Amino acid sequence: MSRRIRLGMVGGGNEAFIGAVHRIAARLDDRYELVAGALSSTPERARASGEALGLDPARSYDTFAAMAQREAQLEDGIEAVAIVTPNHVHYPAAQAFLTQGIHVICDKPLTSTLDDAKKLVAAAEKSDALFVLTHNYTGYPMIRQARAMVADGAIGKIRVVQVEYPQDWLTTPLEHEGLKQAEWRTDPERSGAGGCVGDIGTHAYNLAGFVTGLKGECLAADLHTFVEGRRVDDNVHVMLRYKGGARGMLWSSQVAPGNENALRLRVYGETGGLEWAQEDPNYLWHTPHGEPKRLLTRNGAGFTQPSTARIPPGHPEGYLEGFANLYAEAADLIEAKRAGQTPDHLLPTVQDGLAGVQFIDACVRSSRRNAAWVDL
Amino acid sequence: MSRRIRLGMVGGGNEAFIGAVHRIAARLDDRYELVAGALSSTPERARASGEALGLDPARSYDTFAAMAQREAQLEDGIEAVAIVTPNHVHYPAAQAFLTQGIHVICDKPLTSTLDDAKKLVAAAEKSDALFVLTHNYTGYPMIRQARAMVADGAIGKIRVVQVEYPQDWLTTPLEHEGLKQAEWRTDPERSGAGGCVGDIGTHAYNLAGFVTGLKGECLAADLHTFVEGRRVDDNVHVMLRYKGGARGMLWSSQVAPGNENALRLRVYGETGGLEWAQEDPNYLWHTPHGEPKRLLTRNGAGFTQPSTARIPPGHPEGYLEGFANLYAEAADLIEAKRAGQTPDHLLPTVQDGLAGVQFIDACVRSSRRNAAWVDL
Amino acid sequence: MSRRIRLGMVGGGNEAFIGAVHRIAARLDDRYELVAGALSSTPERARASGEALGLDPARSYDTFAAMAQREAQLEDGIEAVAIVTPNHVHYPAAQAFLTQGIHVICDKPLTSTLDDAKKLVAAAEKSDALFVLTHNYTGYPMIRQARAMVADGAIGKIRVVQVEYPQDWLTTPLEHEGLKQAEWRTDPERSGAGGCVGDIGTHAYNLAGFVTGLKGECLAADLHTFVEGRRVDDNVHVMLRYKGGARGMLWSSQVAPGNENALRLRVYGETGGLEWAQEDPNYLWHTPHGEPKRLLTRNGAGFTQPSTARIPPGHPEGYLEGFANLYAEAADLIEAKRAGQTPDHLLPTVQDGLAGVQFIDACVRSSRRNAAWVDL
Amino acid sequence: MSRRIRLGMVGGGNEAFIGAVHRIAARLDDRYELVAGALSSTPERARASGEALGLDPARSYDTFAAMAQREAQLEDGIEAVAIVTPNHVHYPAAQAFLTQGIHVICDKPLTSTLDDAKKLVAAAEKSDALFVLTHNYTGYPMIRQARAMVADGAIGKIRVVQVEYPQDWLTTPLEHEGLKQAEWRTDPERSGAGGCVGDIGTHAYNLAGFVTGLKGECLAADLHTFVEGRRVDDNVHVMLRYKGGARGMLWSSQVAPGNENALRLRVYGETGGLEWAQEDPNYLWHTPHGEPKRLLTRNGAGFTQPSTARIPPGHPEGYLEGFANLYAEAADLIEAKRAGQTPDHLLPTVQDGLAGVQFIDACVRSSRRNAAWVDL
């Protein structure tokens, strides 16, 4: 566990959402060390972001090209790079690092055009370096469980695949109100010809394939733009036929009020079904035909993918984040104390601890007296 | 963000569950650096665990006493220590570090006896260092939200507080089957007079107080041991009266089959209620009397605690762990490649990326042809 | 099926809620015919209610005493009577009919005082007639299923029984605002010494006993009145010890905002658990220890109580009411037509039917042309 | 309320499911009296079924034609007829009664062919009698609520309509195993060209139109038969375009294990959404964009359709069936007593009532003694 892989990052500067997610993900198991970055397409912002992350200024680059070239020459240069830019930068950036033999971990979708995608495949095949795409939903423990169950024949030959990924955040024309996340995602130059279909439809399609092992054969798609003036689709209806005979539907939308990130997969085979929802990800329904439904839980009875699951069943994975909040606030408090300040805080204190032990003591005392009332 | 606090750890060696959780929590926001440890009560195991974590051998101690003494003398000695041992060690360990002016982050319950708890309060008050207790459920975003809403009067003066924390893992006498986690928790010498009440009842009690701001006044408790031969309680029934007139019930159990970590809090006031369940932690029900129930979500509409929530609404907090699984597996693959191996893996590849772009392309082509079937 | 039992009713006049429910229940399976009534304690209201229900005026009585006496002498007098009055009338009314050998179907709780209850037991034992108490929750199919499973040993010897029945309708002092339902329920003269505990706490207690087969041994209760000026309890906290060693808690409340009729039972034994909620009554969780949870459904796989379940699984029992709404509205329309009127309505028409067949036809046409778009 | 409409029935003999449902629905509100029938296409079975239902033998007909003709001549002949046969009989039967001026209440789909449907429309238009189609899901209270909210503009102009109705009962070839329900539904001669699409797809399509008020414009459908040897479709994928610009998807299936009758409708407009599921029918989600989701309940706050809802909020509509089970079992017991038998039963008795009053009494006694333990 002790060696950490030297990691660089392209994109992911101050304002970006997904860059911070990649950094947390890299840090969670302590397997990576972020040592270099070209964190923004604007050099000034790139440098400011590097400083905020504590990068060595000499390794905070203005462009990914400069970074790829120089890091390849350093003895302790980066071994891998995370590419977290808008879609149209994926290909040139990945290409630059693959050429230098640096492993690439790249956000999805692969590229903004099919042409770029094919070129990137060629580049990856030519390079000795690894290429990993972060279709992150494939990393959920219950998705691994579902995939393993399908492969083991738990539901028989697959017939029907229903997958959907509705959101609501683009119900109104946010791209005209200065929201950067909305701007590039609705700009065909940066996101590609697909809007909603590229941003989240690909996640849904990938997930269905990952779990079922099926390849798509053909499809009929009805893309539509509901918000006036929007330049890409914001609602996606697709009928799918898979190789081998399965049929499916895919719905993704960014204009469905009340849906935050409601990715949901349902797969039905000749002898049973599986159902999973990303918003409640620690659970997987297994519905063997003719028997009661069963609810599988991460690390619970019947779970076979322990390597993907860090904590016991019943602790949702947010457990770690809740814990981390206390550590982060304790860090704030420690730093404040160092600076001679004593801010208000919500952390449990030694008095809270005393109250807890008093509670235990009172319970034991009361119970020993046949549940008499005792003071706390 | 760039400075990291130097952290030590007492307990949390190889076999322990909660030590790894504390380390992940400390790492998640990159605010701490683990640099020293006394990771087990057995010196050999302590050293082996230190090595596994990549600690400098000179700072991997046999005892917490040695660690406290020496680290206090180092120029770059630890600033804070996480204590994650069985309960009976909390007091002596905390005391050792507080005396040296080192901040303490300590697992709950505070101590195994009321006497120790009072001594620890005195030690904390005498020391200049901070003392933080990890009642980790208080760190969940929706719990912070609930507390803020109660304080803002969203449900009026509180009348009824129902809190429960059932588990099922001690339904059978696991402590006689060699499970270390079960052994110390059911040993009054190490856990204190309370079994279930100390281990999880305190979490429930603390959470109720954290959200409501109420102090307990008196209680009537019916502790019971259902599993034959068990030395501490495994089921806890308590009726509570709070200062100011509210009434409550608390149930915790470790023998309730089907309950993993089903901590659940329901609070009812004169004008409304709040309901939260740890196993579905990203949601909070608000039930204003005479209006439809409302479901609040982390980072969704009406959420006021952004500092505690790292990702957008609808991404359960397990999102980060799913992402981290990909990074961890990519690290495995990178290391394997370094070693000249090419293991099987489940990571999305450039071919998956191509398939995704082909999917987008096919959707756009089909849609442009009025949803005609097109090949993938 | 063809013979219908001649039924009378005491109470249940125009304003009453539960009388109408009893009449629907009696009619649902076409086993009863309502032929007589003493429908209100006020003679005028009694007669008006009888007329509204289409009773023969000669058999619409001013008092239950008159009704009992006369009906017993008629050749085709009532065979059974439903008593649906406030609690304090249960005993004298039941006594009057039992004495005459008329079967009694009586609402719960049995009486308003323990004294009356004992006298009623004596009267029932002396009479040759049957006495049935409508603890109606015992009639739910999944409750019958749960009882049968407990009896069959599906969860082993029972350890813990958690039952609760919170409501919110008395969060404010409705009894001072002229609501009749609230008035008599909060008047100790009519409801008895218990308020919430008598009205719904008894349902919870009865249900726990029905499913588990356990008898209570002793209890410790904390009844409380939160709403100022209320004369009976509105929140009930009870710890229970059952004969044979099981322990339990019971919570009932009428001041818990957001709870409509949230009766819920959870039972845990040595080898598994069962969980049921009245607001989602067609489902029963079975949690065998060490296996995934299973969701049993009414008439679904594993269900063994078909005599209690009229419709297929997946049709909630509200299915019948939805159907009945169409029949009721069709009756309105038929009567309106008879009166020469043509009111607006929401019933599906022959045009809707045509649209449906056109939909089928279009689906078939489109599918035969490889899912080409076709007009509807 | 006192006048009851004279009703006849075509189909619905002993083995049929839906006939019994229609009879219960007709009886629930006491608005109809069943007085005539042609209950089966087999004369013997028709007569046996009539006897079982207690029909006057003179009004239990061998054919619907005879029934239509004779009833029309009786002074107290039927005013309305319920047609609950397989689909191919709907047209000739309806036609026969409409011609005689008898109101028709007919099961869906309207007919088995488009041709018949058009002829039936003509017949209905020519007749003075009413024609009502039992698309029964339109009768659910929360569906009426949803329709009213859409009409009131609660979610703005509609954009996306997702409707689905999956079942699992035809996952295996039951029609070859002698199940009558499966036989006629998979026989194109009796059910029409559509299998799943006619049986339940029409329900889904009708429901979407009922709630949204939208008319379909065109559709692209992919019908498929998964079970070998089946003569009609058993899975239905449809993309829909509605007049006015909304888009939709419809999925119905009879081969989706784990789905009983999982009819579900989701509608999204410019300012909000509505979501309803038939298996949990007493609830309706309203998701105004940019605000927390709200859960509306039948007869709860904000509900505006009281005429469709017989019981208070929180009592699922199955409440009436649970109640009716007690009445039915009491009827059994009364009849058994008449016959001199004393069978076992599960009905609450006077002893249960005494136990309940003892419970209340014990609670009051304990509470008055500060929650001391008291014996039951």
TrEMBL record, chains A, B, C, D:
Positions of the Gfo/Idh/MocA-like oxidoreductase N-terminal domain: 5-132
Residue ranges annotated for the GFO/IDH/MocA-like oxidoreductase domain, each copy included: 143-275
InterPro entries found in the cross-reference section: Gfo/Idh/MocA-like_OxRdtase_N, Gfo/Idh/MocA_oxidoreduct, GFO_IDH_MocA-like_dom, NAD(P)-bd_dom_sf
Gene3D superfamilies with a match to the protein in the record: Dihydrodipicolinate Reductase, domain 2 (3.30.360.10), NAD(P)-binding Rossmann-like Domain (3.40.50.720)
Protein name: Oxidoreductase
Native species: Jannaschia pagri
